[in-house]
Amino acid sequence: MECAKFGQTIGAQGGRQCNHRLSGCNESWRNRVEDFPAHGSGIQPPQARWAVLTMAAILSELDQQFRAQFDSEVRGDRSVGIELEFPIVTSAGEAPSYEAVRSILETLQEESFTLQSDAHTGAVVLARSPSLGDRASFGGFDSHVVSLELGYCTLEISLAPERTLFLAEQRLGEVLAPVLRCVARHKCSLLGYGIQPSTPPSRRLVAPKQRYLHYPALSSNDWLSEEDGEDIHLFTVAAASQCHVKVSASEAVRVLNVLNALAGVQLALTANSSVWRASVDPNLKAVRERMYDWVFDQGTFQAISTKGVAPTFRSLSDYTGYLCRLRATLVQRGAYTLRLPDDVTVGDFFERGGPLEGTRLDGGREVVVPRPEDLYYFAALLEFNARLSPSYGTVESRVSCQQPPNALLSVPALVLGLVENLAESEALADAIGTENFVPLRFAAMTRGLHGEVGEVRLDRLAEKVLSIASAGLGKRGLGEDVYLEALWRRLSDGLGPADRAAQLFEHSGLGKLVEEHAIRLP
């Protein structure tokens, strides 16, 4: 197949496109989720007592350990953990220097935060809030965390789980206050926006974290030029609104399936990355979400789909079986991230049982003996719109761009409401039909609330989703549905935040876009 725009050959399976595709070529768009068996390749843990087990018994034991990470039931109010990523920009709307961002983190020490440096680079990459005291017993978290994302110009605030959205908003304010003071001292702003609006992606923006410094060896150059970096460096400018919802073992896969099924509808309501590289993208309202397709194009990185809408899983065993087919790229040992040999799947990693050689960034080699808990680390390599997080016993929603300042809690509210009204959410997913899940995600990326697939319209689905979520929050009896008001307004106006950002930029320029999206203290 030949690219009509540039005349270069595209792979026969449609998995490759011509170089520098950011210039507009989209000839071989494909987002296919392939079928998969209930279990991947056989796995054999290294422990001696496991060596005599049958493959079925080995799989069963790993499944049991994976399942044990989730509570048998959710008691009391279902908790929510929030991860909010914010682009840091100068007054000119550009990414600041790394020195400025490092100084922002170091200044947090004056606000009683504890700093943490990367073991390999020695650079400060994380700041922990003061101890949570009595709240540390809830969820096992002893602090909130402020850290650098893949791009040092994206600051992530990760909050310990809370039982209500009101408490989550209160904690967010408590963490944001000192962060915003430090950011202001360096004449910068945090944006409630899903991407750097002006500065283009580049390897020069990579945060000095060893895990991120391993990434170039695992990526290609189909989109970015070699001068700018590898394709993975597209994410140096992206910013998401993500959340974790506590789930029981019996409902985990049901919740996972429904959040992936409704990912397109959620994205239609929350797309907010239409202006980037100092211009309005002519084709996309959610550039950030499209990056997953550019970077993790099936066939160039993995043999299975790892991004976008996940396959429909039948059980936790299906999920662990799918994980066994995943490419095992990195593993954590102590303070160091090690790169595993090429072309080793998660199943291979466990099946070999004996030691492998892992490589540090400095070229040093370490013997890696597989551990059952490595499966939890590998689970975080799946880039689905929603994925299981066994380390926390949660389902994580990952599809939304960062939201405007007046709607920072809207994504957690939407996701929590859908989970609390799970039967109705599943009924809607069934009515949509599995054949429409992937196309609706693409329609949401390109057209937002105005997207449609055949006779299925995203605006009509959004109204149903909001009604289901509102009823779900209503079951909690806490009045949390107020956090959905911003989403209802978008639906009423027919304009998502991406539409408003594009209009603002075109009418008033970059300065006004930054001013309107800057996070401020109340």
Labels describing this entry:
disordered N terminus; 9-stranded antiparallel β-sheet
Structure description:
The chain has 17 helices and 19 strands. It is of the alpha+beta class. The strands form 6 sheets. Strands 1, 2, 3, 4, 5, 6, 7, 16 and 17 form a 9-stranded antiparallel β-sheet that branches. The chain has a two-stranded antiparallel ribbon with strand order 8-9. The termini are far apart. Residues 1-52 have low confidence and may be disordered.
Outline of this structure?
With 522 residues, the chain is an alpha+beta fold. The chain is built from 17 helices and 19 strands.
Low-confidence stretches: 1-52
Termini separation: 56 Å
Radius of gyration equals 22 Å
Largest sheet geometry = 9 strands, antiparallel
Strand content: 15-25%
Mean pLDDT: 87
Shape: globular
Structural class: alpha+beta
Instruction: State the share of residues found in helices, binned by percent.
Output: 25-40%
Total strand count, please?
19
Tally the helices: what do you get? Answer: 17
Q: Which helices and strands, and how do they pair?
A:
Blueprint: H1 55-68, E1 80-90, H2 98-107, E2 114-117, E3 124-128, E4 145-148, E5 154-158, H3 165-185, E6 188-190, H4 210-214, E7 240-246, H5 252-261, H6 263-270, E8 275-276, E9 279-280, H7 287-295, E10 307-308, H8 316-323, E11 330-333, E12 336-339, H9 346-352, E13 356-359, E14 365-368, H10 374-379, E15 383-384, E16 386-389, E17 394-401, H11 410-420, H12 422-432, H13 437-447, E18 452-453, E19 456-457, H14 458-476, H15 485-493, H16 497-508, H17 510-517
Parallel strand pairs: 10-15
Antiparallel strand pairs: 1-5, 1-6, 1-7, 2-3, 3-4, 4-5, 7-17, 8-9, 11-12, 13-14, 16-17, 18-19
Helix pairs in contact: 1-8, 2-3, 5-12, 6-13, 6-14, 11-14, 12-14, 16-17
